[in-house]
Amino acid sequence: MVNFNGTLLSQSDSKLTIDNRGYKYGDALFETLKVVNGKTFFWEDHYFRLMASMRILRMNIPMNFTMEFLEAEIIKTVEANDLLNSAARVRLNVDRGEGGKYLPYDDAKVNFNIIAEPHANPFYTIDTDARYTVDLYKDYFMAPGLLSGLKSNNKAIQVIGSIYAKENDLDNCLVLNTNKSVIEALNGNLFLVKGDKIKTPPLEDGCLKGVMRKQILELLAKDVNLFVDEASISPFELQKADELFVTNVIRGIVPITQYRKKTFGTDFAQKTVGKLNTKLRLL
Q: Could you say which DSSP state residue 14 is in?
């Protein structure tokens, strides 16, 4: 079942029209959520990121788009798909409705839709035997700026980068900005570990304002033995690192085990995912 503006519909009845602005112009935003046993992980962070993004895109935010209303609609959708007592991957999509060309109509109505599907792991785990190989994606570059950090439907680099990764037997690729700094992976934020120093690219470099990125930074800030820095990462630093890992809300922490000829450990990532699960149990 799909939730369209609060109405539950079957997949066959839920088709968007060809005039939908999300389809025609990418005039839409989305949040990918992990819901376990009816609890939406980090919902407050997702909600405020969505509201801030809607303001940046100058969408007319409906008065009923409160945190409580949207969370209730998420849970309603999860329950309608018989996932209330298990783990689910949920996508909340917001678009500017229909009509207009590049310029939307003055009375453009913002719509939302929600889909839910089963997800295997209720908590975050790391398979220490799994290999995860990455390389740089250099066909196109991300321009730093406020729009690059939005979770919008304009994901051309991520799409063609994923195709490139598959064609080259890679598990993921690392994205560069126009300054040739490494800013993120195709599907998450990047962290670099070198001794007791942890780096992640700053938002100003053009990386996604990731919800899991925020959680990891908060966890690391509590450890007085670590030096955490939001600073630009050059490609030359990657092979000098002890560990690299990717973060996103669905998988949590994904250690990179190989970049070109360099292999990496996973000890720090394993310890951090343990702290993350402990935090979740206290929510």
A: -
Which band of pLDDT confidence, cut at 50, 70 and 90, is reported for residue 17? confident
- CATH 3.20.10.10 maps onto the chain at 133-281
Query: Which helix (H) or strand (E) covers residue 25, if one does?
Result: helix 21-25
Q: How confident is the model at residue 165 (pLDDT cuts 50, 70, 90)?
A: very high
Point out which residues pair with 256 in neighbouring strands: 244
Query: 238 CB contacts (<8 Å, ≥6 apart)?
Result: 174, 182, 192, 244, 259, 262
Residue 56 confidence (pLDDT) = 96
The domain over range 2-118 is classified in CATH as 2.60.40.1180: no
DSSP strands (E only) in the chain: 2-4, 7-9, 28-36, 39-40, 87-95, 111-118, 133-142, 172-177, 182-185, 189-194, 197-200, 227-230, 243-248, 252-256, 258-259, 262-263
**Which helix (H) or strand (E) covers residue 67, if one does?**
helix 67-80
Residues of the chain with CATH 3.30.470.10: 2-118
**What is the C-alpha to C-alpha distance for residues 239 and 241, in angstroms, rounded to an integer?**
6
Three-state DSSP class for residue 226: coil
pTM score of the predicted model: 0.94
Q: In angstroms, rounded to a whole number, what is the distance separating the alpha carbons of residues 78 and 119?
A: 12
14 burial class (0-12, 13-18, 19+ CB within 10 angstroms)? middle
In this structure, CATH architecture of domain 133-281: Alpha-Beta Barrel (3.20)
Using one digit for the tens of pLDDT, what is the confidence trace for 26-41? 999 999 999 999 999 9
Which residue, 165, 173, 159, 148, is CA-closest to 235? 173
